[in-house]
Design brief:
Blueprint: H1 6-30, H2 36-54, H3 59-62, H4 64-89, H5 95-102, H6 105-116, H7 123-139, H8 141-144, H9 150-173, H10 179-201, H11 211-238, H12 241-247, H13 250-262, H14 269-286
């Protein structure tokens, strides 16, 4: 298991929350130039290939014949299902409600880590996780009021479960694999699968290859996909899974703030209330119990 200093963990968390927060508005913008599955495949495969370049000096550490089940399982849970389900699901319901359901993930993650990783569960942690989910729901309530279809709700729940299961799976497998090799293989395999599936249902000619789409996709591939997943896995491997997961409640807040500044969306009382709830959640989940 990796050891990370408290200072470095704080830097990693800030980076992760920021890049995964701006991911939503940037992805929404990119989707105006490309069909969803092809876009999801392009950015994940791009992230995987970028990491492959950095992993060239680790060829002997890939051990593909021995570790391919881990690579394939991780790619299906954390890439194909996570990105594929959310790309399709956003067509069936408002993005606010969809993200609120997806961020049930830290609650699921805490339960799964208690059941399968033996992490401690106490009342403050449970209350904190539920408050954090409530905060995300409050911030996204404008989308909730717009309504949703049962298909969209099911896809959102499936996205949250795939992310939670994928995180637990990686935590249990971490000592067997190199972090860069795992992340590179996961993204590359998942990206290829999504491009094949996307190419079967969507048209490549629908993609508008203008500078805005290219720069947006490259930024997402490098910082959000490649570096984001690498940092996330390092944090998960080094710390309490549920505590790391609690900080992801901040991601919708960053996303909403970016939408306010760059997409001219309005700030409202729900955002303020949700922010207070999310901060309270992080404090409770990370509070030491004697």
């Amino acid at each position: 298991m990796d050891k990370i200093s408290r200072k470095k963990m704080g830097i990693y968390l800030l980076f992760l929350v920021f890049v995964w927060g701006i991911n939503w508005p940037l992805s929404k913008y990119a989707l105006s130039f490309s069909p969803p599955l092809l876009f999801a495949g392009l950015r994940t495969l791009g992230g995987g290939l970028i990491l492959m370049i950095f992993a060239l000096n680790r060829v002997n550490m890939f051990k593909f014949k021995e570790l391919w089940p881990i690579y394939v399982t991780s790619s299906i849970l954390n890439v194909v299902l996570f990105y594929g389900l959310q790309s399709v699901g956003l067509h069936y319901m408002p993005s606010g409600l969809f993200s609120a359901i997806v961020f049930l993930q830290p609650v699921l993650l805490s339960i799964f880590s208690w059941l399968w990783l033996g992490e401690k569960m106490h009342t403050l942690k449970v209350v904190g996780l539920l408050i954090g989910f409530a905060g995300v729901a409050v911030m996204s309530s404008n989308g909730i009021l717009q309504g949703a279809s049962i298909v969209g709700v099911l896809l959102a729940f499936a996205t949250a479960f795939s992310w939670a299961f994928g995180t637990i799976y990686i935590k249990k497998s971490w000592e067997k694999v190199d972090s860069i090799c795992l992340t590179a293989m996961q993204l590359t395999i998942g990206g290829i699968i999504m491009l094949v599936v996307g190419g079967s249902f969507e048209s490549w000619s629908s993609i508008i290859w203008n500078p805005a789409f290219i720069y947006d996709t490259l930024f997402l591939a490098l910082f959000v996909i490649a570096m984001g997943w690498l940092v996330y896995f390092k944090l998960i491997s080094a710390g309490d899974v549920s505590k790391v997961g609690s900080y992801t409640f901040l991601i919708p807040l960053i996303s909403i703030l970016c939408s306010i500044f760059f997409l001219n969306e309005r700030i409202n009382i729900n955002l303020i209330i949700g922010f207070v709830l999310v901060i309270s959640s992080i404090v409770l989940v990370n509070r030491k119990v004697t």
